[in-house]
Design brief:
Layout: H1 18-37, E1 40-42, E2 45-46, E3 49-50, E4 56-61, E5 64-73, H2 77-96, H3 99-115, H4 117-128, H5 132-157, E6 160-161, E7 168-176, E8 179-183, H6 191-202, E9 206-210, H7 216-229, E10 236-238, H8 243-252, E11 256-262, H9 265-275, E12 287-291, E13 296-300, H10 306-318, E14 328-334, H11 338-349, H12 370-386, E15 388-392, H13 397-402, E16 409-412, H14 419-422, E17 429-435, H15 438-445, E18 450-451, E19 453-457, H16 461-470, E20 475-478, E21 495-496, E22 499-500, E23 514-522
Parallel strand pairs: 1-5, 8-9, 8-11, 9-10, 11-12, 13-14, 13-19, 14-17, 16-17, 19-20
Antiparallel strand pairs: 2-3, 4-5, 6-7, 7-23, 12-22, 15-16, 18-21
Helix pairs in contact: 1-4, 2-8, 3-5, 3-7, 4-5, 5-6, 10-11
């Protein structure tokens, strides 16, 4: 495949066009047929061979938990050790493979994802409950990661001269780190899973992918496409399993050089603690890349365009049921704008369409599983006891009973000390508060332990400049929603307890998977050494 010279984001589907609607509907029919006949499955893949695991998990459609989408067979500890050994043995040859060849293989994967776009979207809809637009964006982002990182590898792959010096050559070059473990989340089951995996592969590392249990079926589809694209079977292993078992074992394994993780703060901190412990036989300090979440705020200034601000808050707070690390979970409104804004916000949330993810009209689908539903419901019940409810969208009781749904809920006048203000909820729950001034609103927004995303709606130039300087988060959005970062355009990632590492989809990301070297040669010849 010819390598492109410039990166361009994969266009999202326009669902106003009937052929796009028809293609997704047809793919959903294909997925439904497989669910009804044999179901989907995910099992360990080591050295390109599908293996039987031990024990497992039946993944149910969160829109209708009476339907089993497929079965996941968990990898054993012995299989984890086998995968590490295989990847360790394959590492020298993969490291020596031309970076251009690795980039070309990555573009092959991008094309395979593009060809299966509708099918992959349909499986995401059924396995993790993403509505149509969210599922399509997930696949498009996976394609973007492949194309962007292929071009980035071309930029980084060739050795460069540090400077011109008479009689001496100084080359700066990169080498891969070794065997990488990728532990991926369920909320972006293809995009983030693909992005971390291909970043490690294209840079010359060998990779073991351990997906979130709830998203193992779509991850298995990705694993088969990775091998179909031409990545050598020995360089990649797929190990579905419980994080507490096979995931923990992989993190502690002495032959693992790098861990890329996206998930909760608690698990990420545990991974870091484990990674700094040097095990017997370990030959390198493990590198950890971790994206851990956020408690993101949107500030609405007293001169903001309410139409834009309402759209931005609603889409950011309730898109994919608030299950995005970038989601808005706090709205801070300045001064006298507070009451009229809340009135408009409450009215707008009444129009949210809650329903099964497979229904094209659905805006807000289910949360990921029963455990999440019960945890979020408990948080809402505490809020109802201790806080003032602004609005709660009515949801048909039959829909609520059928799947793992949580009604969009907004609380007003939430104190900064309340857990609803401070703790990540990861659900369709929004906390609102008034700030007496724009300066105070920025202080309230940045008081969180997290620093991932944030937003400002304002028409005041001085306030916008202040936000640029003082609203210190990884991704700040002005007069737009705060979710939906695009690869290349808005490299994504934060700091504080939102994680460690460089931004995904940005020019620094691949450097984390590489180690720099300098080779210096004295070019002044003294005598002549003939070939022996």
């Amino acid at each position: 495949m010819n390598l492109p010279h410039t990166f361009k984001n994969e266009p999202l589907l326009d669902f106003s066009e009937s052929h796009n609607r028809d293609n997704v509907a047809a793919a959903l029919s294909v997925v439904e047929q497989q669910i009804r006949t044999r179901g989907f499955s995910a099992s360990p893949i080591i050295n390109g061979t599908l293996q039987s695991g031990s024990g497992g998990y039946t993944r149910r459609d969160p829109s209708n938990t009476s339907i089993a989408v497929g079965d996941v067979s968990y990898a054993t500890i012995a299989q984890a050790d086998e995968a590490v050994a295989a990847c360790q043995a394959a590492f020298p040859a993969w490291r020596a493979t031309s970076y251009r060849q690795r980039a070309n293989t990555l573009l092959n994967l991008a094309e395979l994802l593009r060809q299966k776009r509708f099918f992959l979207s349909a499986l995401i809809i059924r396995e993790v409950g993403k509505p149509w637009r969210e599922a399509d964006a997930d696949v498009a982002e996976a394609i973007d990661f492949c194309q962007y990182y292929a071009l980035e590898m071309l930029r980084l792959g060739a050795p460069t001269l540090t400077e011109q010096v008479l009689g001496e050559e100084n080359l700066y070059l990169y080498q891969p780190r070794g065997v990488a473990v990728v532990i991926s989340p369920w909320n972006f089951p293809l995009a983030i899973t693909c992005g971390m995996t291909v970043a490690a592969l294209v840079t010359g590392n060998t990779v073991i992918l351990k997906p979130a249990e709830q998203a193992s079926l779509i991850a298995h589809e990705l694993a088969t496409l990775v091998l179909e694209a031409g990545f050598p079977p020995q360089t990649f292993a797929f190990l579905p399993g419980r994080g507490e078992d096979v995931g923990r074992h992989l993190v502690a394994h002495p032959d693992i050089a790098l861990i890329a993780f996206t998930g909760s703060r608690a698990v990420g901190l545990e991974i870091m603690r484990t990674a700094v412990t040097v095990a017997p036989g370990q030959s390198t300090i493990k590198r950890v890349i971790a994206e851990l979440g956020g408690k993101n705020a949107i500030v609405v200034d007293d001169d903001a365009d309410f139409d834009d601000a309402i759209r931005g808050v609603v889409s950011s707070a309730f898109g994919y049921s608030g299950q995005k690390c970038s989601a808005c979970s706090r709205a801070i409104v300045v001064g006298d704008a507070y009451e009229p804004f809340l009135e408009r916000l409450a009215a707008a949330t009444k129009d949210i369409i809650v329903g099964p993810a497979a229904d094209p009209a659905t805006f807000l689908g289910p949360v990921i599983d029963e455990e999440a539903r019960d945890r979020i419901a408990s948080t809402v019940q505490r809020g109802l006891r201790e806080l003032t409810l602004l609005s709660q969208t009515e949801v048909d009781s039959s829909i609520m009973a059928q799947g793992t749904f949580v009604a969009p809920t907004i609380f007003r006048d939430v104190p900064e000390s309340h857990t609803l203000w401070t703790d990540e909820i990861f659900g369709p729950v929004l906390a609102c508060a008034r700030a007496p001034s724009f300066e105070r609103a920025i202080e309230m927004a940045t008081s969180s332990d997290y620093a991932l995303t944030g937003g400002v709606f304002s028409r005041h130039p001085r306030h916008i400049d202040m936000a640029r300087e003082e609203f210190r988060v990884g991704n700040l959005y002005i007069n737009r929603n705060i979710t939906g970062a695009l690869v290349g355009r808005q490299p994504f990632g934060g700091f504080r307890f939102s994680g460690i590492g460089s931004k995904a989809g940005g020019p620094d990301y691949l450097l984390q998977f590489l180690e720099p070297r300098v080779v210096t040669e004295n070019m002044t010849r003294r005598g002549f050494a003939p070939d022996m």
